[in-house]
Amino acid sequence: MSEKEQIEKEENLNEETVEATEQEEVETEKDPLEELQGQYNELNNKYLRLYSDFENFRKRTAKERIDLIMNGGADVFKLLLPIVDDFERARTNMETADDVPSVKEGVELIYHKLVKELGNKGLKAMETKGEVFDSELHEAITQIPAPSEDMKGKVVDELEKGYFLNDKVIRFAKVVVGA
Fold first, then answer.
1. CB–CB of 139/174 below 8 Å?
2. What is the rounded CA–CA span in Å between residue 50 and residue 153?
3. pTM over the 0.85 mark
4. Would you kindly state where each structural domain of the chain is located, as residue ranges?
5. Cα dihedral angle (100, 105, 111, 116), rounded to 10 degrees?
6. For residue range 84-100, what is the model confidence (pLDDT) as tens digits?
7. Which of 77, 151, 156, 155 has the alpha carbon at shortest distance from 121?
8. Distance separating alpha carbons of residues 105 and 99, to the nearest angstrom
9. Could you tell me which residues come within 8 angstroms of residue 125 by beta carbon, excluding any fewer than 6 positions away?
10. Which residue has the higher pLDDT, 65 or 13?
11. Crossing angle, helix 100-120 and helix 74-96, to 10 degrees?
12. How many CB atoms lie within 10 A of CB 177?
């Protein structure tokens, strides 16, 4: 091999080395871009999964809320059904009963059973007679002259009972107030 051929061979080798180095530089320039693109894709994927999880949660809670509204009173109705059955039996017995006091006693028993079961669910009747009139609890239907001086501004008579459900007023008592 001649010297000239050797020089040409070295030049070709140098040119190949330079081209390989330039390609590596281009590839290293692509690596940060590719790395950022990979991070972007990963974060975007996490975001989409989180968004879809939240949408599923929102839909599930909305459905549960609707179910609660639609079926929330089911336990109260289950509680009332045996009492309705008792009333139906009492009505049947009233048609043929000759003993009025026993019929009255049966109706009283059913009434007390109803009040007890509703009390177990948190329903409580207001005590209003003789109490100071409170517009947060009472609805004044009318005012009458107070029967005594100490009854002024107090509840003289109760026309319709008021009720609390778990210490929240669900029906105001309709009362007559002494003036």
1. yes
2. 61
3. no
4. 1-71, 73-121, 123-179
5. 180
6. 888 888 888 888 878 88
7. 77
8. 10
9. 161, 162, 163, 164
10. 65
11. 180
12. 20
Tens digits of per-residue pLDDT, 51-60? 999 999 999 9
Phi-psi region of 153 (alpha: psi -120 to 50; beta: other; left: phi over 0): left
| Whether CATH 2.120.10.30 fits 123-179 | no
**DSSP state letters, 19-82:** HHHHHHHHHHHHHHHHHHHHHHHHHHHHHHHHHHHHHHHHHHHHHHHHHHHHHTTHHHHHHHHH
CB burial of residue 148 (10 Å; 0-12, 13-18, 19+): exposed
CA distance 129 to 176: 9
Strand-by-strand arrangement of the 155-160 sheet: 138-144, 173-178, 155-160
- Give the integer Cα–Cα distance in Å for 65 and 10: 81
